[in-house]
Amino acid sequence: MITSRENRWLKEFRVALRGGLATEKGFVGVEGARLVEEALGSGCRVEAVLFSESGERHRERMAPLIGRPEMGFPVLKTTDRLFEGIADTEHPQGVAALVEPRKVEVADLLATPGGACSPLLVVLAGVQDPGNVGTMLRTAAAFGATGAATAATAQGGTASPFSPKALRASAGAALHLPVLAGMSLAILLTQLKMNGVHTLASCVQDAAKVGASLSPWEVDWCQPIALLVGNEGAGLPEEIVRGADARVHIPMARGVESLNAAAAAAVLFYEGYRQREKKVKS
């Protein structure tokens, strides 16, 4: 039983959960029974699992995952009061883990997993809300995306997909989907073009009136595609839109300016999923 606030493990959990930062060794914090289960089953390296006194009720259901010989990490216990002091949520469930996100390179994004007709990627450029980042990754994974990347633009950076809030919003998808975080956007786009991945810039309805733009069903989603999604308010920088292979917009009823960035990504990826599933089954 850990009873000191100054315990080194509690300090690491506090940095990763309440601080929202990776530890010195590169581990991120995962909190809540469902997310810890996702982390244990993701294949990512786990440094430690922590239960509070009341959180012990979740231990039995996780026993098959925690008890595997190959896991080899400490299982810790602390008081409810001390757990509340490190938790990021208002009403913690009393279970957390330190997890190392998988190492992802551009080559991983270019690979075509079994069962997919081609790579389907989402590139988040300047998406600042961690809830939106997590929701988009969850949506992309649900509709068959094979990988994701986050990058900064001149307008600002993209929230970390491995922050506690983003991980909760992604329901753990960020630990399963290959995610390349923090790469230079210019270098990433160059690499994608060199390897035959078509870049598709998402834009709002009004912006679509300037220059050629496709509706979602006019896109061939079975070719290698990277969907570029920009900042919640400003969208993608003009130079990124101009440099993309094509633009895509979502036709909407009059009087509606745009959708939330995460909602728009869901609409686009659903059409991609529909086309890709049809090709795989044919």
Summarize the structure.
The chain is of the alpha/beta class. It has helices spanning 8-16, 33-40, 59-66, 80-86, 106-110, 130-142, 164-169, 173-176, 185-194, 238-243, 261-281; strands at 28-31, 45-52, 75-78, 95-100, 120-125, 147-151, 179-181, 198-202, 225-229, 246-248. It is built from eleven helices and ten strands.
Structure description:
The chain is α/β, with parallel strands linked by helices and 282 residues long. Helix content is 34%, strand content 17%. The chain has 11 helices and 10 strands. It has a 6-stranded parallel beta sheet with strand order 7-6-5-9-8-10, sandwiched between helices. A 4-stranded mixed beta sheet has the order 1-4-2-3. Helix 3 links the parallel strand 2 and strand 3 (75-78). The radius of gyration is 20 Å and the shape is elongated. It starts with 7 loop residues before the first helix and ends with a helix.
SSE layout:
Layout: H1 8-16, E1 28-31, H2 33-40, E2 45-52, H3 59-66, E3 75-78, H4 80-86, E4 95-100, H5 106-110, E5 120-125, H6 130-142, E6 147-151, H7 164-169, H8 173-176, E7 179-181, H9 185-194, E8 198-202, E9 225-229, H10 238-243, E10 246-248, H11 261-281
Parallel strand pairs: 2-3, 5-6, 5-9, 6-7, 8-9, 8-10
Antiparallel strand pairs: 1-4, 2-4
Helix pairs in contact: 1-4, 6-11
